[in-house]
Design brief:
heterodimer, A: alpha+beta, five-stranded antiparallel sheet, 16 helices, B: mainly alpha, Cytochrome Bc1 Complex, Chain D, domain 2, two-stranded antiparallel ribbon, 11 helices, elongated, FixG_C (chain A), transmembrane (chain A)
Chain lengths: 528, 303
């Protein structure tokens, strides 16, 4: 739009030379590399490059989307996914899982206060957070896998924004009627009837938001207890604040912003546009078949002059993001395939073959346009990229499962006292003190044997075991699901030099889990 | 500003500043921003009335709520004190020789003692309670005790101190200086005998005789010491002021005696109890044997 080579308007004056105080100054920018001394001090007159008027406004107000009701295979699949995803979200906190008397019985629980993450049979401690990180990485790569296999299927069916937007659009339809009724109501003046109707609808919006935000907090505490406390006004303030925030975001994002989240806020469409290529499955309009568009009447008169598209606008009216798929793939298209349902229905009514709008790859489209037989869309599922993603995804999963299977539920950390490093006893023997942490990750109390290796003649006692009972191995009971701190005193006979040795902990049950830590025994004359 | 003009593409007025051809648009602020701004002004009026706000000469305006950060701190300290109160009460009730029976209370006493030790005791005994041989501050981690290492003895030492001037109940004893009492050969023989008690040197009849004449009364025939008078053991590996011949000689001729202040009056009995439990827990604490002989220890209800 700006073209400095062709300054518009005849009123423009020559700005190449400026006369100031009777002195001509050049108005051309001078590079400091070639300018003579003082050139920088000679300012040229400020002016902006000539511009023409911008053609378009930078801001586009939202056009409300009133999507029409449609039924078809993809719509039914969307219903199914909605049911499953919402079901998982709302039901999961209420599932129970027996873990014995020492651990909570909620199947999925993020226990912030006790720093534990429970997921059915798996319990994650904070130091094992890499499992959660691994799950998140799997989720990310899973999205890549889904995108390269079936395009933006996540956006179209499973994304929470899509699911809740869909939910709210159904509420719109139930309260205000279908597309035309909603458009009429939108344009209608604010009568009491409209106020009442809107108030009723927004109350339902708020209720859905409340249930959504309310279910979220149930993942972080015992669901039945928190549910009771919440309505009794006895839950923690953070619970109410969280619910309030999530209610607000649900209503705002799902009830009012809707497709704008996908188009303007979400980074995922941008990432996906980089991942899509001519082999990706997209929802596309087969323009070689549809163009030029013409009504049924016109097509009847001149069958050869018009394509299959009768310009009935059904595909636009059912679109939940309000786009026209016939303009080609675009960022607003979440590939929910409702336009396929709509178009197939119309094609069936007018007796033309289905699939004017269809899931296809660009390659297939080109092939089909040339008259060749298209490959089945299923072929796109198996190609090097999807295989590679599946392999990466699967191997991370297997690695996590393997790690989960072989992880030990017993751990030991040792921290030797440095002040003083060693202690001379009255009989000349030398004593060192250590702070040991024995970790019992089973949800039952366990006896653990603590022993000393590679330190001949060593005796050990602790803050709870008397010196009279000192021995080279001691048994400590560690409470269920906890870390027990033991202050251990290790004593060797006089004259034993400083050396490295090993603390070993062994669980006294059928598992016989063990962990060993090497540390140092300090003695007089020890340089370390 | 004579340079003000309407910017063509946006239709907005410029502010009139210009630098090297760069100008600034005077874009009006968004409505929501302005309203937020007005709301903050309203809020500040309420805040100034309710809370301390205007700095005056020596203090700020108080605000009608009477809130102050100092008062808030005092409230929190009160709450913390209240939370500790039950532990302190329990500690005050339990006689110290019975403390180990309640391991939870003992653990709390040790934790409290650790904090009090850092504040009151680490100046001489060191933060690790390792003492100082050079300065004669005893190491509290080992199993060598001058005045006894059970809980009750430690508590007594803490309460009454050692050689605390002007205090009748303090632990006290005096080793006389022997400067001029021995000739060099005698002194040498005596030092050899003292070292031989812990197997470090060869004794001689003369040395043994000198020891028996002058030292046995307090330090015992085989150098076992006497806790009743705080006489150190001479037959063990721990030497408060060094085990070299010179160090021992110096200590015989001109003994240096340690002093520890009494903490009664400075610290409350419960803190002293906690300190005793902590020192006892450092690894060298001894069992209190008298309990078995006198099981009917009266529980002192008066803290």
């Amino acid at each position: 739009m700006n073209n400095p080579d062709h300054p518009g308007g005849k009123a423009e004056r020559d700005r190449s030379v400026v006369v100031e105080d009777g002195l001509a100054k050049t108005n051309e920018p001078v590079s400091s590399a070639v300018a003579e001394p003082g050139a920088a001090a000679r300012r040229h007159e400020p002016h902006e490059p000539p511009r023409q008027h911008l053609q378009e406004k930078l801001y586009k107000p939202r056009e409300p989307v009133h999507n029409k009701r449609i039924d078809g295979p993809f719509r039914r699949f969307k219903w199914f996914v909605m049911l499953v995803t919402l079901g998982i979200y709302y039901v999961t906190p209420w599932l129970r899982w027996d873990r014995g008397p020492y651990a909570p019985d909620q199947a999925v629980l993020v226990d912030m206060a006790n720093r534990r993450f429970y997921m059915f049979g798996i319990e994650i401690w904070p130091h094992e957070f890499y499992f959660v990180a691994g799950l998140l990485i799997m989720a990310g790569i899973g999205l890549f896998l889904v995108t390269s296999a079936v395009g933006r299927a996540w956006c179209g069916y499973a994304c929470p924004q899509t699911v809740w937007t869909d939910l709210y659009q159904h509420v719109d339809r139930l309260i205000d009627g279908d597309r035309n009724a909603r458009i009429r109501l939108d344009r209608a003046p604010w009568t009491w009837g409209k106020v009442f109707r809107r108030g009723f609808k927004w109350t339902i919006y708020a209720l859905i938001g409340l249930i959504t935000g309310g279910a979220w907090i149930l993942y972080f505490a015992d669901a039945p207890t928190l549910f009771r406390d919440f309505f009794a006004g006895e839950a923690a303030p953070i619970a109410y604040v969280t619910v309030a925030i999530l209610t607000l975001t649900t209503v705002t994002l799902g009830g009012f912003m809707r497709e704008q989240v996908c188009i303007y806020m979400c980074p995922w469409p941008r990432i996906q546009s980089a991942m899509l290529d001519e082999k990706s499955l997209i929802v596309t309009y087969k323009d070689w078949r549809g163009e030029p568009r013409g009504s049924l009447k016109k097509a009847k008169k001149q069958p050869e002059a018009f394509g299959d598209c009768i310009d009935c606008m059904q595909c636009v009216q059912v679109c939940p993001t309000g786009i026209d798929i016939r303009e080609g793939p675009q960022i607003g298209c979440i590939t929910c395939a409702l336009c396929i349902d709509a178009c197939d229905k119309v094609m069936a009514e007018i007796g033309r073959p289905r699939g004017l709008i269809d899931y296809a790859t660009l390659e297939d489209c080109e092939r089909e346009a040339k008259g060749e037989t298209p490959r089945s869309p299923w072929r796109t599922l198996l190609r090097p990229r999807t295989v590679a993603y599946s392999l990466i995804w699967g191997s991370i999963g297997l690695a996590l499962l393997f790690l989960l299977g072989v992880r030990s539920h017993t751990e030991l950390t040792v921290s030797p006292d440095r002040n003083p490093p060693f202690m001379l006893m009255s009989d000349g023997s030398v004593r060192n003190s250590y702070t040991l942490k024995l970790r019992n990750m089973e949800s039952r109390p366990r006896d653990m044997e603590l022993s000393i290796e590679d330190l001949p003649g060593a005796l050990m006692w602790s803050d709870t075991i008397r010196r009279a009972d000192a021995a080279s191995a001691q048994t400590v009971t560690v409470p269920a699901d906890q870390t027990q701190t033991v202050r251990a005193y290790v004593m060797v006979p006089a004259g034993t030099p400083a050396r490295d040795f090993t603390f070993r902990v062994t669980s006294q049950d059928e598992q016989r889990e063990t962990d060993a830590v090497e540390t140092r025994f300090s003695a007089p004359g020890d340089d370390q | 500003m004579e340079n003000k003009r309407i910017d063509e593409p946006t239709g907005t007025e410029t502010v009139g500043h210009e630098w090297d051809g760069i100008e600034e648009l005077d874009t009006p602020m968004p409505r929501w921003w302005l309203w937020t701004f007005y709301l903050t002004i309203l809020f500040s009026v309420g805040y100034v009335i309710a809370y301390p706000a205007w700095p005056l000469v020596d203090k700020a305006t108080a605000g009608v709520l009477g809130w102050s950060s100092r008062g808030e701190l005092a409230k929190e300290i009160d709450a913390a004190d209240l939370a500790r109160e039950s532990v302190r009460e329990a500690l005050a009730r339990v006689p110290i020789e019975r403390l180990p029976e309640d391991s939870a209370l003992m653990a709390q006493a040790v934790a409290g003692g650790r904090a009090a030790f850092k504040v009151n005791c680490s100046q001489c005994h060191g933060s690790g309670a390792a003492g100082s041989q050079e300065l004669g501050y005893p190491n509290l981690n080992d199993d060598d005790w001058l005045w006894g290492g059970d809980l009750k003895a430690i508590e007594y030492t803490l309460t009454h101190g050692i050689r605390q001037a002007g205090h009748d109940e303090t632990r006290t004893s005096q080793m006389p200086p022997f400067a001029g009492a021995f000739d060099p050969a005698q002194l040498d023989a005596l030092v050899s005998h003292v070292l031989s008690l812990s197997g470090k040197g060869q004794t001689s009849p003369a040395g043994a005789q000198l020891y028996a004449d002058t030292c046995v009364a307090c330090h015992g025939a085989s150098g076992e010491g006497d806790r009743a008078v705080g006489a150190p053991r001479l037959n063990d590996a721990i030497w408060l002021r060094g085990s070299s011949r010179e160090a021992i000689m110096r200590q015989i001729l001109n003994p240096r005696m340690g002093m520890m202040p009494k903490w009664e009056g400075r610290l409350d009995p419960v803190t002293i109890k906690m300190l005793a439990a902590y020192v006892h827990s450092l690894g060298g604490g001894e069992d209190f044997v008298e309990v078995a002989e006198d099981p009917e220890v009266e529980v002192d209800e008066q803290p």
